[in-house]
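Input (structure):
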């Protein structure tokens, strides 16, 4: 009976709210630590090392060199392709700009020169006199001022 009473007291002990809260808090903190460590290792780009598998330092270094070489080759290929693509885009842009410039010049040449001045249209036929009358020269008016 001592064994049953021991388990019963442990069961009752686990049911207490304070014990449950401490367990949950402890579990939560452990999970937070693990997640923080995973993110840290991910940032370092190594990942978590498995405890059961022990890699020799030489093997690890050679693998790192190979991966570096592969990554550098891929990066150089990607950089070259992006650089070539940008050069082609720049060349196309310059050609399009030149074409636009030529088209605008042609359109301007077709329109002609823009003239500025007063618009004096010819009088319509029904308003125009049949025979233009000769303008009489104005007589000079002489004003004489008399002072008294």
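Output (sequence):
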């Amino acid at each position: 009976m001592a064994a049953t009473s021991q388990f019963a007291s442990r069961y009752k002990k686990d049911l207490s709210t304070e014990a449950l809260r401490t367990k949950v808090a402890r579990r939560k903190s452990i999970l937070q630590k693990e997640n923080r460590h995973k993110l840290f290792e991910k940032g370092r780009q190594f990942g978590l090392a498995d405890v059961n598998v022990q890699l020799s330092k030489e093997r690890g270094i050679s693998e790192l060199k190979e991966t570096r070489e592969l990554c550098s080759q891929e990066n150089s290929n990607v950089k070259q392709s992006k650089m070539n693509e940008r050069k082609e885009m720049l060349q196309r842009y310059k050609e399009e700009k030149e074409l636009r410039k030529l088209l605008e010049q042609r359109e301007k040449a077709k329109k002609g020169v823009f003239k500025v001045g007063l618009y004096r249209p010819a009088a319509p036929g029904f308003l125009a006199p049949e025979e233009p009358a000769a303008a009489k020269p104005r007589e000079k008016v002489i004003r004489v001022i008399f002072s008294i």
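Notes: The mean pLDDT is 78. The chain has three helices and no strands.
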